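User: I'm writing a tutorial on reading structure tokens. Could you give me a worked example: one chain, its sequence, then its tokens, then a sentence or two explaining what the tokens reveal?
Assistant: Sure. Here is the example chain.
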Amino acid sequence: MPKKYELVYFDGRGRGENSRLLFTVAGVSFTDTRVTVEDWPKLKPETPQGTLPYLVIDGKLKLGQSLAIARYLAREFKLYGEDKLQMAFVDELLEISVDLGAQYEKAFFAQDEAQKPELIRKFKEEQIPKYFRLLNEGIAARGKNGFAVGSNLTLADLAIYNITESSGLESIGDYSFLKANRDKIEQVDSIAKYLNTRPITPF
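And here are its predicted structure tokens:
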């Protein structure tokens, strides 16, 4: 029997979108449970580590931590590379994406509203060029035909797509391999259909 999946996360892309994209590419149905800010406090005690997202498997097992979930699904759906070396390359680009995501959250979700404009300015002027360059170089070295690693779509492609969308696409044209990768992913039929129908959210 196929496994039944429920992904529980806020009503935004954020740390849950990589897993949503993995389900989409694999063509595996799942329940996309979106938690409102108002409902979060009462749900929090029921989560594995007091955080979102978490994945419910067959209505019983709960798996927490966004990277653990994404890596599990990528392995289940054979979207983690063709051999151990490619899997390492996927992890390499995934970790760069995570580092960029941490810088994004530090700036855009800063608690001090007075400091936020300066943090956002520095993020755009310093962090985006740094991490876009690293991703561009990684794709150039590891990928083929527009994909990030090897000649097939992997978790790395989806993680890069997600974080570049969140970070801002104003300068992506300056990074040819990164731009080509984004264009390649948007041409995947299942992703194109998903992007046309997913909810519009602030993050």
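What the tokens reveal: The two ends are 35 Å apart (CA to CA). The beta strands are 5-10, 31-35, 54-57, 61-64.
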